Write a sequence for this structure.
């Protein structure tokens, strides 16, 4: 995969939006459309199902030089050899982890990304050694309906203060992306606006174009 600093479009295989499509087919479309990173997010699947999906997606992302991110499951990320594991505040800090380096096994270069919803959380994630942070949800989103929007104010704070790679997330679509970029974001995570599009590869390519 590219260095995280060079990654701009972070897309998802989110099982809530597969609408009957196979995860590997969607992963291929996201790669074809120019995603730099793809996260496997499967909030209602068993760990066995997630491991199986990760195993079929990984050869596709590897071939395309796209980083595969496993959401929530550090053990699966390690076992399948994914490049990145993404964890929420509750998965990391509430589970009493303090340093990302402690999650890496001796011979693995696993990267860890952490969700953040406020400046203090970003500062704590960076101090813990996160490889990237997610900044959001910027806008209210049906993908994470209970989360309170952090607004563009947090994006502006991140642009001024965060020196590691960071991705804006939450409610980003082709209508809202310009405001997010104007607030200082250079990298975005997009879930539903790509997966609900009639053509996921084309939607990805449209976001890619807006980010360049
Ligand atoms: N974390 C913060 S917002 C969000 C996650 C996983 C969901 C973003 O999804 P969408 O559909 O791009 O708004
Ligand atoms: Mg989580």
């Amino acid at each position: 995969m590219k260095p995280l600093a060079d990654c701009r479009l972070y897309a998802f295989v989110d099982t809530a939006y597969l609408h009957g499509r196979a995860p590997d087919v969607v992963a291929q479309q996201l790669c074809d459309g120019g995603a730099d990173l793809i996260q496997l997010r499967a909030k209602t699947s068993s760990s066995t199902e997630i491991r199986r999906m990760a195993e079929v997606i990984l050869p596709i992302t590897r071939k395309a030089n796209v980083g595969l991110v496993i959401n929530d499951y550090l053990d699966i990320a390690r076992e399948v050899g994914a490049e990145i594991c993404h964890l929420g505040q509750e998965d990391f800090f509430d589970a009493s982890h303090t340093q990302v380096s402690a999650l890496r096994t001796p011979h693995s270069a696993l990267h860890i990304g952490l969700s953040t919803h406020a400046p203090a959380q970003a500062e704590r994630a960076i101090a813990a050694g996160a490889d990237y942070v997610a900044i959001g949800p910027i806008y209210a989103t049906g993908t994470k309906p209970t989360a309170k929007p952090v607004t563009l104010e947090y994006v502006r704070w991140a642009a001024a203060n965060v020196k590691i790679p960071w991705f804006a997330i939450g409610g980003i679509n082709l209508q809202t992306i310009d405001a997010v970029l104007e607030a200082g974001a250079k990298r975005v995570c997009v879930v539903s606006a790509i997966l609900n599009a009639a053509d996921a590869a084309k939607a990805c390519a449209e976001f890619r174009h807006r980010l360049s």
The first helix runs from residue 23 to 32. The chain has a mean pLDDT of 97. The pocket of magnesium ion (ligand 2) is lined by residues 71-72, 87-88, 91 (CB under 6 Å). Residues 45 and 168 are 26 Å apart (CA to CA).
